[in-house]
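Morning run. Coffee first, then this:
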Amino acid sequence: MKKFIHLNIYGKDEDLIVLLNKLKTQDSKEFSLDKVKTEDYALNLFRDKDRVACFKSNLKKHFDSTIWLAIVDSKLSITNIVSSSISSLGIERYNLILKDFWENFFKPITDENKYKVKITKEIVTIEDLVLPNVVRALNMWESTCNKSYPISHPNDRERWFNFLKVSIESCSILPLEDLEKWLIEDKKWYIDEDDTVSDLMRDYEYGMDLLKFYTGLKDE
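And here it is:
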């Protein structure tokens, strides 16, 4: 399934500030610092200007987008990318802009021996997200259930409950949005008039919340 890429750079706050200020002085035809948005962003976050930055993309293929960065808790992150010409970039366009910004503008000045750089993957599998025993329980339910009424039959419901139980016991819980994407993108479940997937997501959220409350498991 496709997911938004996240870029995080870890280091000492003072080193990250130096890196971000160095980025602000970069001379590039592709990206340029938006000083006004940077100042507004700092005010909105109640942070110093040297801990935030907004860069405007000058490339047509980037749809007049702005890349937002901030340093929080010893981590420099791209917090968002927003277009002023279209309402939503979507996953593919968002990831394209992030990768162009990193590879062509940010990475060349970043000493990866000094900073820990973490870039998440665009394409992930269910195995990337939860433990193997949770994957087995999920696949056991999904491969045998009635796709129109996925937890109505007692056998389907038992396998569904087992998936929830194993997730809680293993402290390996699949985010709701990832379960939905997995069913639709990987398993080709249809978005039908009966809202089968939407109803199932409500059942999943309620079931997990109930089990977390019962076991005292806290969200990360």
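The longest helix spans residues 196-215. Good start to the day.
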